[in-house]
User: Fold this.
Amino acid sequence: MKKFVFLLLSAVLFLTPFSVSAQNERQVIREGSRESMKIALTFDDGPHPYRTDDVLRLLEQYGIRATFFVIGENVSYYPEPFKRTVAAGHEIGNHTYHHKLLSETCEKTIEEEIRKTDDIIFRTAGYRPKIFRPPEGAYSDCALKAAKSMDYSVILWTVDTRDWEKPPVQVIVDNVMKNVKGGSILLFHDYMHKNAQTLEALEILIPKLLEKGYEFVTVSELIA
Ligand code: NI
Assistant:
């Protein structure tokens, strides 16, 4: 029996070489208070040469502020839509420089990925982000430690719209309406390949959510 347990433990350790301790796990934020009607729209992987502006226009139409988890490399390619995002008062989060999967490494590269992104965000728009989202929501103790050492809050999400898989508009809408609750952090993407219907879904979702009494805030406001 002991041998079996040992083998099982070895297998688990082998499969997850960079584990996450329970203590560090508590550092990861997936939602705000369920007692309020506040929710946060988040957009990952931008800025994009024109899709980011499409989202900005829609948000402006409703006077809504959202949160954009940007990739450092994309900020270097498309500084203008990024500057417009900051100027419009949206919150900016750090999403690494190369969209690197952090669960598979425990090296100094994690810190470099975060710091390089921090630098280009500041150089481009004079903005210092306070929140960090690991690509694909994948992390390890090392990633959490690195984020903490740079005073970043680690933010995942409550509802994954899976918009990047290009589901029909109604599937995105139904998924959000079925799963949203007070305090929810909703995951969308403003950088994706063509035919994703994020914008079309948002055009339906925003008025629906407002009608239900939800209030749109940035992630930092949601978790304050
Ligand atoms: Ni991403």
About this structure: Residues 91 and 184 are 16 Å apart (CA to CA). The beta strands are 28-29, 38-44, 67-70, 91-94, 131-132, 153-155, 159-160, 185-189, 215-216. The first strand starts at residue 28 and ends at 29.
